[in-house]
Amino acid sequence: MAPRILVVDDSAVVRMALSQILGRAGLEVETAIDPLVAMDKMRRARPDAIVLDIEMPRMDGLTFLDRVMAQDPVPVVVCSGLAGPGSEVALHALEHGAVDVIEKPRLGVKGFLEDSARRIVEVVRAATQARLRARVRALRPLPRPPAGAQPRPAPRLAPRAGRAELVVVGASTGGTEALRVLLEAMPADAPAIAVVQHMPEVFTAQFAKRLDKLCRIEVKEAADGDRLLPGRALVAPGNRHLSVKRAGGLVAVVSDGPPVSLHRPSVNVLFHSAARVAGPGTLGILLTGMGDDGADGLLELRRAGAHTVAQDESTSVVFGMPKEAIARGAAVEVLPLPRVASAVLAWAR
Questions:
Q1: Residue limits of the Response regulatory domain?
Q2: Which is the catalytic residue, given 34, 293, 296, 312?
């Protein structure tokens, strides 16, 4: 049976365009002009995923999102204008349970949606596979050991040929909150970190700024030539590849170029460059996400002597990228998200 998608948008043009795009991909599509109509339709037939606008009459999308997550959680993809203040709203939606974001321009919407059909279908299909209970488990703190219990030993890692120099992280669907959990746990003197998160280009700068406010380390959108330093995390700009080179230290390279593994930025591009440049001094981490971007790169990192970690199935919103890496033998460790940060700290000691 085809996955059932509910498109909630007050624009008839958007509803029609998304219905055609998703319908051609074999998805069953229902539409609603606003959240109140959507709630009535959801009482009759529960969708597998919702595509949601934010600015609508009678009830805004964020209020509707909160109600959905509180009453009967359904994977939600936000499809809204993200430029300027909209990017902050989109971040808020992700924090409140949305699994991904699709950019929607203010003008030329129909043509833009048609041009972005492949990404839209990919994101919505991934949402139908999202497991919201896994997101709850990922964000839940680890239970405290009972009084008198022996402390859990630190992970025993293989001897490292070089010093702990660089952490590289890749993520996609569900990754924005996973990255927040990971980076918030980093101390101010954490090793240099480079991140690729699949997201629209107008979104990454605001995402990095939000993380910077929450974390003890500095977090910024990467610019070409930025130094990768202890206590700093660089986030790949949307629609640009991020790699690393050595020039009196580790330096970020931000570049154009064709998509790799169907993505720009590509996790594989970052991981392959880290394997060449930093090798055994690298820790590679592959978090939740759809598809297989990063799986080959994580395997190359492991072959170069790096320590490698994949997020486990129980805490992955979409167990795609980590699953592929595990299947290829790329992961030295498979860990629930709350234990990934402790693995970083154990490796860096």
A1: 4-119
A2: 293
